[in-house]
Amino acid sequence: MDELFKGFARAHAEQNGYLLAATLSPISPPENPQRLRSILKSSNSSRIKGDIKHLIKSNSSHQRGLDHEEIKGWVEVYAAYWNAVGDIVAGEDGKSTWTKVYESWKELTSILIRGYNNFGFEAWTIPCLYMIGKYLRLFAIKSDAERSRNLGDNSGGASLMQDDFDPETEKQGQLRDCEQHLKRIFTLCLNDRAPLEESRKWGIYFIINLLFKTYFKLNSASLSRTILKTLSAYRGDMPPLSAFPKSQRVTFKFYEGVLFFLEENYVEAEKHLVEAWELCNKDALPNLERILTYLIPCRLLTTHVLPTKALLEPFPRLQKLFLPLAQCIRSGDLRAFDLALQEGEDEFVKRRIYLTLERGRDIALRNLLRKVFIAGGFDELKEGETTPVRRTRVPVAEFRAAICMGSGGELVDTDEVECLIANMIYKDLMKGYIARERGIVVLSKKGAFPGTGV
Amino acid sequence: MSGWPTTQHPPGVVSQHAPPPAYGYPPNPAFIPVQVRQGFSPYGAPPPPPYNPYASSPAQSQASTPGTTTNASPSAPVEQPKGAKTEWPESVRRYVQRSFHPENDDASVSRAELEAKLKDTIGSAKENNSLYTIDWDNMPLPQALVRADREALLKLRYTSLTTPIYADDSFNPRKRKSNDFPNNDASVPPWHSTNSGRSLEDRISYSPDKRVALDDSKFQKEANKRKRRFENEYKAANVASSSPTPPSSGPIVGTSETLEKKYLRLTAPPIPSNVRPERVLRQTLDLLKKKWRKESNYSYICDQFKSMRQDLTVQRIKNEFTVSVYEIHARIALEKGDIGEYNQCQTQLRSLYAMGLKGNPIEFKAYRILYFIHTANRTGLNDTLADLTAAEKEEKPIKHALDVRSALALGNYHKFFQLYLDTPNMGAYLLDMFVARERLAALCNICKGYKPDVKLRFITEELGFESDADAAQFIIDYQGQHLLEDRTEYIAFLTGKANNLFENSRASAFRKVDIKGQI
Questions:
Q1: Residues of B with CB below 8 A from A163's CB?
Q2: pTM of the predicted model, to two decimals?
Q3: Which long-range contacts (CB under 8 A, 24 or more apart) does A267-275 make?
Q4: A with B: how many residue pairs have Cβ under 8 Å apart?
Q5: Shortest CB distance from A355 goes to which of B252, B382, B462?
Q6: At residue B160, does pLDDT exceed 70?
Q7: What per-residue confidence (pLDDT) applies to B254?
Q8: What is the mean pLDDT of residues B287-307?
């Protein structure tokens, strides 16, 4: 315990927020695996507040004085921390539950927030909020998992007044609850009116990222939009994103990109994901892999670009995920594409990219039809023409033959072939029109397949 | 959860005045009927529920509350259409203001009680068309009415010490009704015979005759009377038992023997005497199925199903019976196009199936896919795909739904409309909800892809219209009459001249579907 408050005093002397946050860690550091236990043992519940007060005063006495109010606030915080540590240690001994840990950690969160609102905690201490928020979320997830394991003991009184069961609450009730508290921290940072250099606004992106993670886990990613909207309303007096630590920027850009991705706005998604890609530490392979998981399908739809082997070199998992599909798209093999998509379906669905990758079939089809066009060769030169012109009137039957072959010999009727071609034209993957009565497709003389050189 | 709009009204009343709107269907008549929709009658008024199981009794009149003078004229004819927005008279507004004025606060009357009473008072005044006749300025405040109710109940409780209210069968004819209920095969529980091995036709009842002539006001009177009885009983049960037993936190065990119960949203922990145990609910389900087949009164049925679901929930009953309640309600809601209620049921079904309970998961997982296509919910679709096992994906209804999904995702309208014409189970009700928008999308495609024209017959066949006339009507409905040209042998559709005619309609048709919109 003495150790803890030496750290506390040092952090205050240096105004080092991260050092201060470390004193509130719910995990013993590797060099001192007994830290939590010794903290717990060094006091008891009747003495704790007095002990803390004494330790804060004795350790910080020779330094710039913490004012009285602040000390009061920190005593409350560390008393709540000591309580939570009690539950964590009991949990390690199998005498407590994650739900209890979550509850006491939540109490600590509330008291810490109160410290900022009522006891004048300074802005340099915000890493404490990061520490508390980060573990609040983790404990909530553990508590939910634990509760769903022992189904039945989660009979909250609230659900008894409902008309139907709410399966989501039952599964993720704690995480939902946690979201409320993270949002309080968000507001706490957002609404600080102090001048920028000593503002809690500097905590905003850390908290936003925590909220994003929470929303994605809750399967309601779209709620992140509300946060972004609130943020943009405050844009004027917010420090620019570029002034924040890189790690926070990468995470933020990644989630912003994925959010656009899920909303099918692939152009915007690509922008943000590329930013994240460029900011990301090149050694952080797992993070790079996460970014590519969404950036590759994005690129496929926006610019029809497929990943190269070199790009995927360091990512064996992504190779397995994307290379077979990319190969089929290149060669215009519809049947193989369908099989590859089916093969990877579980993985794709898990990563929420299935519905996007599926649309890669359009590109495969485009490549197939393009082959037919090229195989058609050139029209005979007319008088006065010097450069050969490709044959632009292609019988539907030729496309049909190609599609039947591409579909592994399955018979596709002419109407369906026309429908597929009409789609190509509608999506601007092909320029021209179908003359149904004559059974031909009339393609544009200039750029029948835009962006592909023919 | 959004409130169910009909809860304030007596069952049956709403359907009388406001025929269930054809929810989700475009007002134009351009879609073709598919087989399963034979019985679908969005515009026909359902027949009235002819039952009137509540004979008045002395105990009943005793229970009616003194002070609620507004209830005193039950026979007042009601002409006002239900759907119409009410203009509240100035005197009523003043009354409401007075009710909430701080100086009239009564510590013994909670805000919720006050609001409920106020709503009830004004609501019944409106019902009776006495909004303008009541002297609102001298009307006792809701606080006073609540206190009066309590006194009356207290008196009633004393009398009930000697004669238990519900012991007498004649008081509660509903009970008897359930005994009258024919139960031919007592060895087989009725719910077992519902789903297993019976065709869809058997499971869905169709309204026998939509044009039953009916004296509106007479029906209305009956309904009003019934409503008041319901309310009084509910209050009696509610208040009487709430004071002596403090609400416990665990799941309760119901003791009510009443088969039917009007749905009321819970604002306080449920009272066991007002909740039916599973044994009774099973009889209720049977009764409701019979009624639905016979009367097809959706607002009544929906209300009853909601109260059943509530009873199941508060007692934490999650078993195969629960599944069948939700399945049946989901099917009925689908048939009536009540997409909001349907969605609530399917959400429950999803987690019930996930618990391993038996039912018809294949059928409903297929609906779920179609539903998410309708609401353009990609997250939902993705989750649904994640839920499916390899074996399930091969089951016909699910495979059909998945094929529909992928056909639409790839813009393959040709395949989509072939699938549309061959939809298993009740999936066609869901498909019908978005077929118009898919037709618009296909038209956009065709107009850009074909030049100079195509035969109208081609549109008819490609977009699954029943006849050329239907196809032409659809085009005309979207201002495309100038694109149709009569050429002695056939009618041509001038795709080359359409430009972006259908693009706007397409875009607005694809805007997100609001699932909260309920009948």
A1: 1, 263, 265-266, 306, 309-310, 313
A2: 0.70
A3: A267/A302, A269/A294, A269/A298, A270/A295, A270/A298, A270/A299, A270/A302, A273/A298
A4: 128
A5: B382
A6: no
A7: 86
A8: 92
A216 and A316 belong to one structural domain: no
Is A400 inside any structural domain?
Answer: yes
Chain A residue with the nearest C-alpha to that of B4: A163
CATH number at residue A386: 1.10.10.10
Q: What is the dihedral of CA B158, B161, B162, B166, to 10 degrees?
A: 110
Phi, psi of A155 (to 5 degrees): -75, 75
DSSP B11-30: TTHHHHHSPPP-TTS-SS--
Please give the biggest Cα pair distance in chain B. Answer: 89
- Please report, in angstroms and rounded to a whole number, the separation of the first and last CA atoms in chain B: 15
Is B269's CB within 8 Å of A422's CB? no
The last residue of a domain, from among A203, A218, A244: A244
Residue whose pair of structure tokens reads 């060769």 in the numeric block: A377
A430 and A323 fall within a common domain: no
Express as a percent the part of chain B with pLDDT over 90: 34
The parent domain of residue A32 ranges over 2-149+167-244
- Write out pLDDT tens, residues B83-132: 445 667 777 777 777 777 766 777 677 777 777 777 777 777 776 667 77
Contact B382 A352 (CB under 8 A): yes
DSSP summary character for residue A32: -
Domain termination residue (choose one: A194, A228, A244): A244
Contact A276, A298 (CB under 8 A): no
pLDDT value at position B174?
33
pLDDT of residue B186: 40
Q: Which residues of chain A have pLDDT under 50?
A: 153-159
Contact B410 A423 (CB under 8 A): yes
Task: Name the domain count of chain A.
Answer: 3
* Contact state of B379 with A221 under an 8 Å Cβ cutoff: yes
Strand partners, B284: none
Distance (Å) from the alpha carbon of B310 to chain A's nearest alpha carbon: 4
Q: Give the nearest chain A residue to B492 (CA atoms).
A: A437
Token pair 């299935």 in the structure block, residue: A354
pLDDT above 70 (res B210): no
A261: nearest CA in chain B? B378
pLDDT at residue B40 greater than cutoff 70: no
Chain A contacts of B383, Cβ < 8 Å? 219
The ipTM of this complex is 0.82
Q: Smallest Cβ distance to B385: which of A165, A221, A354?
A: A354
Residue A167 and residue B350: Cβ atoms within 8 Å? yes
Residue B81 contacts A where some CB pair is shorter than 8 Å: no
Q: Say yes or no for a CB contact (<8 Å) between A422 and B381.
A: no
The residue among B42 and B505 whose pLDDT is bigger is: B505
The alpha carbon dihedral of B505, B511, B515, B517 has a sign of negative
Give domain status of residue A454, yes or no. Answer: no
Asked, for residue A156, whether it belongs to a domain, the answer is: no
N-term to C-term CA, chain A: 75
Put simply, whether A164 touches B (Cβ < 8 Å) is: yes
Give the DSSP H/E element, type plus range, for residue B486: strand B484-487
pLDDT, residue B215, reads: 47
Phi-psi region for residue A155, left (φ > 0), alpha (ψ -120 to 50) or beta?
beta
Q: Is the pLDDT of residue B443 over 60?
A: yes
- Using left for φ > 0, alpha for ψ between -120 and 50, and beta otherwise, residue B129 falls in left
Q: Does residue A128 share a domain with residue A259?
A: no
- Domains in chain B (CATH in brackets) are 362-510 (1.25.40.990)
Mark whether A270 and A381 lie in a shared domain.
no
CB-based contacts of B386: which residues, under 8 Å, 6+ apart? A346, A349, A350
Please tell me whether residues A422 and A293 are part of one structural domain: no
Tokens representing A13 are 């002397």
Asked if B378 lies within 8 A of A165 by C-beta distance, the reply is no
